[in-house]
Amino acid sequence: MEMSEIKQIVKAEIHSHLELCLRPATIKELAPQFGIELPNEQTFRDRFIIDEPMKDLGSVLNKFLDTQKLLASEEILERITYEACEDAYKISNTKILELRYAPTFVQQGHENLNFEKIHAAIVKGMKKAEADFDMAVGLICIIQRILPVKEAEAVTDFAIDHKETFVGLDLADNEVGFDSKPFAPFFLRAKKAGLGITVHSGEADVPKAPRYVQDAIEYLGADRIGHGVQIYRDEKMMSYVKEKQIPLELCPTSNWLTSAISTKEAHPFKQLYDFGIMTTINTDDGGIFDVNLNQEYELLHRLHGLDRSDLEHCADYAAKVSFISPEKKQKVWPRKL
């Protein structure tokens, strides 16, 4: 299957971090304004792009900090949101897109911004994109598990207060050493308020990873799991996830770059798909990882043997389990959800 045919597949993406979707051209334009000189392409790639595996997830998260410095105004936030939607639509033929962001991460070091200003700018960019392109976009609010629980409470309150423009709540950052269970009350409250629940879990290659996935489902009420790739190590956990009909937001290139898996060929995507688990295909941090959704589909076709019908099946999974309202999704999706 050629890339031209892969591009024709109508796609849905449900795991994409807005803060790390920036276009290279936008980074190059903005960086000098914040004291980051990029005299040549190699300097740019060294500072902002991850294209070879890092030693672990923590190392990857640290490299995101240069990009974070650029998220410094409402105008920039509106712009990067619009551009993320435009690129998803025009490059990858993505009709349903969920973008997630952490208000605490964006606000860090930017005293001129508060949660309200950040969110209003992002919503403005999203709505402009929806007006210009035949697509449905939803926003997910992220709680950073590495911050104090008090911060999590404030973010939860903010998400619930803005549930007309958020579709879900997520728990992100490195789960190794940061148990999810203390966050359970916040997620159960958000779920009761009508928000979809997704939790980053089972990503890192550690022995307890499958158990972390079970905790996210049992204690936090996860409707979906962000990553969950490591459950392939435990057939009981695979059966549990399948039986509960919990979709996995799988990100093949990301899992290789964070050393969650050893090689792209070793990714268990097809094993999980063939087992009957709802597997969705996502980029995670498309700008910083220098990957788009077409490339993720092509990787799964070339290295794992998924054909067009398999890839469309995964796209349908993502469209179906997206937290965006069914009516809004069906207007842009070519098949019955």
Overall description:
Strand 6 (224-227), helix 12 and strand 7 form a beta-alpha-beta unit. The chain has helices spanning 3-8, 24-30, 41-48, 57-63, 65-69, 74-92, 103-107, 115-132, 149-161, 184-192, 209-220, 235-244, 252-257, 269-275, 293-304, 308-321, 326-330, and strands spanning 11-13, 94-101, 136-144, 168-172, 196-201, 224-227, 248-250, 279-281. Helix content is 48%, strand content 12%. Strands 1-2-3-4-5-6-7-8 form an eight-stranded parallel β-sheet. The chain contains 17 helices and eight strands. With 337 residues, the protein is α/β, with parallel strands linked by helices.
The main sheet orders its strands as 1-2-3-4-5-6-7-8
Roughly what percent helix?
Answer: 40-55%
CATH class: Alpha Beta
Query: What's the total count of β strands?
Result: 8
Number of domains: 1
| SS strand fraction | 5-15%
User: In DSSP terms, counting alpha (H) and pi (I) runs of 4 or more, how many helices?
Assistant: 17
This entry's quaternary arrangement is single chain
- Most strands sheet: 8 strands, parallel
Radius of gyration: 18 Å
**How confident overall, as mean pLDDT?**
96
